[in-house]
Each structure stands twice: as structure tokens, then as C-alpha cells.
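[[Per-residue structure]]
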Amino acid sequence: MKPLLTSLALLCCCFLTAQDRVIVTGLLDGTAPGAKPRAVELYVAGTVDLSAYVVQRYANGGTDPTDIALTGTYTDEFVYVVNGTEEFTIETISDTAYVAGASATLELLDDDLRAEDTIGIHTVQGRTDLSPLAGNVVTVQGIVTGDFQDGLDGFYLQEEDTDADQDSTTSEGIFVYAPDFAVTVGDRVTVTGPVEEYFGQTQLRGAGAGATITVEAMGQGLPVAVALTLPRADSSLEALEGMRVQPVDLVITDVSGLARFGEVTVTPGERLVQFTECNRPDSAALAAYTAGLAADQLVIDDGRSGSNLTPIRLPSGDTLDASGGFRAGATISGLTGILGYGFDQYRIQPTDTDSLVLSGNERPTAAPDVGGVLTIVSANVLNFFTTLGRRGADTEAELLRQEDKIVAALLELNADIIGLNEIENNDNVALARLVNTLSVRSGHPYAYVVSPDPGTDEIMVALIYRSDRVEESGTAASLTEPAELFTEGGTNRVPLAQTFRVTDAAGSNVGEKITVCVNHLKSKGGGCGAGDDANDGSGNCNGTRAEGARAIVQWLASNPTGVAEEDILVIGDLNSYRMEEPIDVFLSAGFENTKTLRGSGKFPCAGGPPSYTFDGQWGSLDYALASPTLAQHVTGATAWTVNAPEPAILDYNTEGVSNALYAPDFYRFSDHDPVVVGIDLVAIVDQVSNSAAGGSRAELLRSGRSGYTFVNVSRAGTYYLTNAAGQVLRQGTVATEGTTVSVDKLPTGVYFVVLREPGVGQATFKVMVP
């Protein structure tokens, strides 16, 4: 432990010279209207009689100072004197542009502090993001808490707990730039060197510039790590810069920087969500939401500088390999590290990882079980191009690897009908190759629907199917009008629809029909012009997508395949989050989002697993929307999360470290997760699970076509049948077994049954009336 400096119990003398700087802090609390906060400085000489000096104010960033007289009464003794910093309390100030708040202080800092005088690290750090001693040579002593000389060219030093000040606004840790001086975690080290700000982080230059580093003792106990919770403003994080921290309740929201920079972004509780996934588009609300995100995230770094380093180091200290398993959505616990700053973000450099545990959002090992007789999938294949060097693979070797991953996914899904996005529009060459490979490897015959007009875009949508289970029953149709919505450049891709008839005699759905329409609406990237680009969260070209959705709804109502089939499934990448207008267009027309049809309570905001991430924020761009008559036959639907949560470096590319991390499996076959739907076209779904967050086990079973019966009711209670607007249509008592709710003579649509069980809570069921 180093000795504290002796307090100078002097009334007027503080041994300052004419070059010493007196920094005024706190004076800007409550500035007058129109006044702009600016730094103010006071230069003094000899003894300190504040009434004899003026403050110089540099207004609006100018270079010519304006004198501000200091008048009034001031305390006539130091509040305290520690480590070279002296404070006075100001009670009044004459300049009306500034109002001295209750906490306003004058902080006198001795710029001539002798380098050989050991001061506290908290003094070097100061109370703001910039060190008040920047440019000075100082001596500090502390414990080495993290040695990153092989990655960051230095180490972190922190005051011993017994030497820490009691000021929560000052940090006790600091980074020492010293690439060539050997230290070990637990060493007590004295460092003499200049203070500097390096890309936003306060540090000591322990290498060169006359700096010296001395190891005083080894094997010392480390300072206690501070529990770090979010949200936390930058000003609060600054007070922990350079210190040992233990993050609490953090989940990985972004792995996009893992390969290039060795970093992942974390946030508390659950991943960050795209604003319009859960909120209606709104400019003001979006601005507030976005502003709040900054305090809600941190970076966990790999303790190295540079980019594209190998091997890729994980927060656990392990390295990423072809087996993967490190995913967004996992909760991190048991991590201890040091909070640093760089590249405009606070970041934790891990130090103690022996107790680190990753849990949650585990990697799926098989396709989801969605029940039903038919399985229909919407899958984005991320620019599957047989024309090399365009938007997909650059070489035949890469194309084979891409094909292997896509086929592995389709084999596992074993779907009857598959809608594809982002396949090359080249006279079906790419489509035929993929279908042929799938047929050979699956041992089942697959075929593709020939689109009458795939449009002129480089990519198109497609429909493929198992021809031993279903057959084309109508005339394939493409929507190309109006041209400005579907065939002109920079707009929606041409939709494709076909009606299929079930031919599998071994199943119960033989002879039944379903129309499937695959779509790819305009992306949010690029602009579509005034009035079409929104700053309310829905992004660019929202109007183009919404008008495209309206055209598709009208088109499908006209039976474009020539078959009058009411059971319709709209699938594909709609490039719209759940609360945006294009999705509302389909829902208003009676279509149901199959992922939420059975009352999913999953992240985010009961929308079921998200299918896409952008900038670490999650939502659904990929959909399977069922017509009212089809919705009652949906047995299950979900996103198969094998792509979006995975590091992109696990894809098919051969460049750099990707080559060594490749595996011919279905993980990261695209950047979008496929949506999987189970359907039974004969049976009406007879079980509806409740959405209760508590302990209710009650369920509803279909009783014929006009009723639902309660089962697993714990205690007798009351039910209410409401419409979508919440209007109570029917109500009654519920026994522990056998009570039936009638939906007879109700118009076609969606209804809700609310069950209240005494002592258990409320459960809500979403039911369909055909």
C-alpha cells in the first residue's frame, strides 16, 4: 500500500504558480437560457485569493476569452486535499450566463505536480472522460489485473481496494501501454510516465518518453471486481474504465464482428429487437428507442488489436472451430474482465473465464416438429448462383460447398413444398441444379414449378416440391402488373403461385389442395424516392412493399392458378417486420401469421423465433401467412434458427479462416432462418395451448366444428369469449372437466377465449371460426 499525501490544512496558500491551472467544474449546472456550456479556466499565482482573480470564458468555441468576475463569499478553507487535487465550494458567481448549483465546485489542479510524487489512479482518471492530467508525467502504483501485451501491447493496473477513494465518479483502473515489459497478473507495479488519451481511453505511456516501470511485489490479491449491470450511460461506465468488472445477466445480441474484430455485443436480459417488430412505426418513438439502445449494450472483446486474426478467440478463451456452437441469444454468466474503451465503444476484455457458462438458444440439431401431414417451408438460399463471381459463389469449389449446405438443410427439413428466395434468375439453370442434387441425395423425386415470368431481376423466387407426395393441380401464375411494383428495376420481385394436390395415398390428405404463393418484397436498402422512404422505423421503400402486398392480396383473390381454392399460404421474405404496413395489409385481408397462430409467448414480444438480425437487432422478415380457411388446419409453425444466430464465418466461402471452419452441414446455409409450417388439410386442429405465464395447465380441445372443450382445468372458474376487439360475446362457468364453449353461428374470423382459474391466474386461447 502506498502512503497517502498529507493534507495541507492551509487557508489561503496552495503553492500554485502562474502556470498552474484551476479548472472550474459544476458551474454549468443550470445555465441561463441560450447560454452554451463551455470550459472555463482560471490561472493564478502565489497564494489563492479567489476574489482577486477572474474566470476566462471562451464563448461558443472562440479563441478570445471574456473575463468573468468572481464575487461573493467563498469558503475560506479547503474542503479536502488529496493527491494534489484541491477543491473549493462556490456559493455565488456574478456572471448571469452561469448559475452555481448546489454541487458547483472549483477544482484546483497543480500542473507542476512532481513526477516522483505517487498519486492515485483515480486522480489521473478524474471525474470526466478526459484526464485532468493529460500531458503530465505522473507516478502511480497498483496491481496488474490483466496482461494483454501480446494483443493490446500493454496491461491494466488498478488501485488496491484499501487505496481507492470514495468517489463513485472516478475510476481506480488504467491501461499502461508497455509492449516490451514483462508483468504478471497480481504484480504490484509502480509506473512513471506521461498521461494521454488514446482513442478515447485514458492511459499511461509506459514505453519510451522517459517512462519507468518497477515490479514492487508479486502474487498480490486482486481488487474486488465490480458487478456491472446494464442499461448504463457512458458517463457511468467511464467511472469504471480500466477496472475489474463482472457483467450480470448479459445475453449475446450480435456476433457479426466475431470473425473480423474478435468481438461480440451483449445486452441485458434478451437480445435487442428491431423497433417495428414490436412497435408501430413512429418517428419520435423510434428516436427515443434508438437513443436508449446505446446504454443497453457492451462489447466483449478478445484482448487483441487488429482485424481478421486467427484463430478466432471466443469470450471463454476457446477458439471457434467447425463444430460451432457459439451463437447469438446465449446468456453469458461467470465472466470477469476489465472494462476498457476503444473504437467508440466500451468493451470488456476477459481475464477470468474458468467459471464462464453459456446457456440458452442452443443450436438445433434437427428440424422442428410442427406436426401435420404436409410440411411447407419458406427458405432463403442467399444468392445461389451457378454464374460464378456474381452475387454468390466465386468458384466452383465454393458453389459445391454452398450447395452442400443448402441441400443438407432441405434434406433435414424433408418438406413437401418449398418456397425459395434469392436463387439466380438464369433460365432455371441454378434451380434445376439444386433440385437435381436434392433428388439424388434424398432418394426422393423433387421437381420445380416453371414460372411463367420470373422478372428481370438477377434473383427470383421459386417453388419446388416432392413429386411423389404432391402434384401441380393448377396453372402456375406470376404477378407482373403493375410493372412499377414488380418488373421495373429496384422494386418487388415477381411473385409465383401454384395450386398443389396431395397425391400420397398413404396419408390422410390425399386429394386435398392448397395454393402456395412465394414472394420477395423490396428490400429496405437503397431509396425509392420521396414519400416512399420512411424515418419511422419501417425503412426505405415501405410504400413499395405495402402496395406490392395489396396487389398480391387482390391477385390471390382472383384464383390466379385457375383453381378456386380458399386454402392459401403466402410465404417468403417480405422484408417487413411484424408491425409494419405490408404485414398489416395481409392481416387485414384475413391472413394469419402462422408463427403466432397458436399463441406463442416466445421472444420477441410473443412473435416466435425471429428469422433475421441486422446491426444486432432481431425481428422477422420471413413469413408463412395462412388464409382464414387454412389457418384452422395449421398444426404448428416456427423459424428454424440454424442461420441468423450463427457467426457468418461458418458459411461456404473459402477466403481466409472461413476455409478451415467449413462443414457440409446445414448451419449458416443462409443469413435468414427458414420458416417451417405443419398442415393437416383434413383434420381441424383440435388442441389450443394457453398463453398463461403462470401455472395454468388448461387447454382447449376442438369439439366438432362449433365448439371447444376445456381439459386440464385445476380449479373451477369463469370463461369469456371475445372478438378481436375485446368485446365479450359469451361467458360462463368452467368445471374442472367437460365444459364446452360454443362458437356456433359466429362469423368467420379469430376469437379469444379467456379462462380465469381462482388461485391460478388467467389463460388466453386464440381460436378460429371457419
User: Anything to note?
Assistant: The first helix runs from residue 121 to 125.
